[in-house]
Amino acid sequence: MFAVFNKLGWFFKHYWKRYLIAIIALNVASAIGLIPPKLVGYTIDQIQFGTLTSAILTSLILGYLVLIVVHYCISFFWDYTLFGGAAILERWMRSRLMSHFLKMTPTFFGKHRTGDLMARSTNDLKAISQTAGFGVLTLVDSSIFMFMIIAMMGFTISWELTIVSLIPLPIMAVVMNKYGAAIHARFTDAQEAFGEMNNEVLESIRGVRVLRAFVQERQDAKRFKVMTNDVYEKNIEVAKIDALFEPTMKILVGISYTIGIGYGAFLVFQNTMTLGDLVTFNVYLGMLIWPMFAVGELINVMQRGNASLDRVNQTLAYQADVQDKSNPTNLEEVGSIIFNEVSFSYPGTENDQLKGMTLHVNKGDTIGVVGKTGAGKTTLFKLLLRQYPGIKGEITISGVPLEDIALKQIRSWVGYVPQDQMMFSKTIRENIQFGKEDATDTEIYRVMELAHFLNDIKQLPDGLDTQVGESGITLSGGQKQRVALARAFIKDPEILILDDSLSAVDGKTEAKIIEHLREERKDKTTFIAAHRLSAVTHADHIIVLEDGKIAEQGTHEQLMQLDGWYRKQYQDQQLEKGEVESF
């Protein structure tokens, strides 16, 4: 049960002073709370024997008031210190998780669904936080505070009565242990079901327009209902065990009360103890209810926390497929980029997506990458970004193998505009500044001109301060592409990769963007993948990929001299363009 505390040992060691002070303050407050029952018993005895005076009564009342104030102040202090530590743990764990996510490669996100990762970052972290706060409280109260009460009952009243009244405790220990094992298993299942439901909700929200277009709202609602019912049923299974804790504790406490009052009354009649002692004993027995409940709550919280911590630690233990070497090479500038007999297959697949690719790219070259869908264009760029391990052959930059260069340095050189543009739920200004945090409005307007977005920004209600909505839902596909282009342009990267990022704009807009690119990128390397061949005709070198291999390569003019795929595709596209224009 206490395994979760061992797993969190690194945190408690770091904040041991905070927790030590909180536990000491908690115990001091508990000790002060044990004094009032003795005052009550003493007062009753004074009344019974007729020795209570106004001076004694005044002293008792004043003493009681002082104890209330002191107890309140110390209780506030330990509560703030203890639960503040729990909030620190939650913040720390959330930061570790986020940092871990940012280091992960696509392989990790292929194995872990977004909804489940969100569940681990929210519900599971909350359960772990509960362990470091409420869990420590119940541990102290179910052990030290309980022993303090038992000691007061035994040493100051009657050990005989105390031992007899606590007969139900061993029974409670056995029952609570069984409840704890059931809670751990059922809570783990419930959290996994919650993660699956989270993922379903995310996919439905992201794909709401597709759902509506295909009139799948009712079917999606049915699927969600099934998942919701599954989460409900599994949480009900957890609740069933939860519901057993309180009645079980009440029965055991009731038995203790019955024994305490019955046998205590017998001892009073035998003149073994006074009536005031019996009243004090029963007050202590009443105070013992919370520590007994705390035992059940401790087991509950520990098992939930342990299950959640296992899930979070499982995520944190996942090692990134691509990591820096211990002493990476530091390059001053980006020179030539060479692919030497590069082959690659995605993890879990048998066939190579790239096969024996050899390509020499000089600094400042513009490289066109074309081919049929699935030919390997995007894969080529992913390897250049070092997103996957297991590359056969060698990729070098300025003669240095790619794996010898730090990931941070590689990605600082690259401006990448993928096929699916990611817009953050912020303003257009903030989306563009993602490429350069301190970019001024003057710089932003300049790159918007390069991306041919100036006319669009004038038509938007708040200009640069227009909110783009969730994933840029308020922008058209072409507008999102051009904002993404502006975001890459403002970075002014050494290597610019445009992965079919002009597909949603018309031919005239594409021509103007390409013209701007040629002017701005004269001394820097650019890769352009496109299905519309007009986007690469200006390139210094064009490669045609087919089934992961370079089938044709050369300049536009050279490729047009060949009777290959490039020439036929270009002629077909020009014919279509001509037909459209004549129409």
Automatic annotation (TrEMBL):
Gene Ontology terms: cellular component: plasma membrane
Domain of life where this protein originates: Bacteria
Location of this chain's protein in the cell: Cell membrane
Ranges for domain ABC transmembrane type-1: 20-304
Example GO molecular function: ABC-type oligopeptide transporter activity
PANTHER family attached to this UniProt entry: ATP-BINDING CASSETTE SUB-FAMILY B MEMBER 10, MITOCHONDRIAL (PTHR43394:SF1), ATP-DEPENDENT PERMEASE MDL1, MITOCHONDRIAL (PTHR43394)
Membrane topology: Multi-pass membrane protein
The keyword Cell membrane belongs to this UniProt entry's keyword annotation: yes
Native source organism of the sequence: Oceanobacillus piezotolerans
ABC transporter domain mapped to chain residues: 337-572
InterPro entries named among the record's database cross-references: AAA+_ATPase (IPR003593), ABC1_TM_dom (IPR011527), ABC1_TM_sf (IPR036640), ABC_transporter-like_ATP-bd (IPR003439), ABC_transporter-like_CS (IPR017871), P-loop_NTPase (IPR027417), Type_1_exporter (IPR039421)
A Pfam family it matches: ABC_membrane
Alphabetical keyword list: ATP-binding, Cell membrane, Membrane, Nucleotide-binding, Transmembrane, Transmembrane helix, Transport
Protein name per UniProt: ATP-binding cassette domain-containing protein
Transmembrane regions: 20-37, 49-70, 127-151, 157-176, 251-269, 281-301
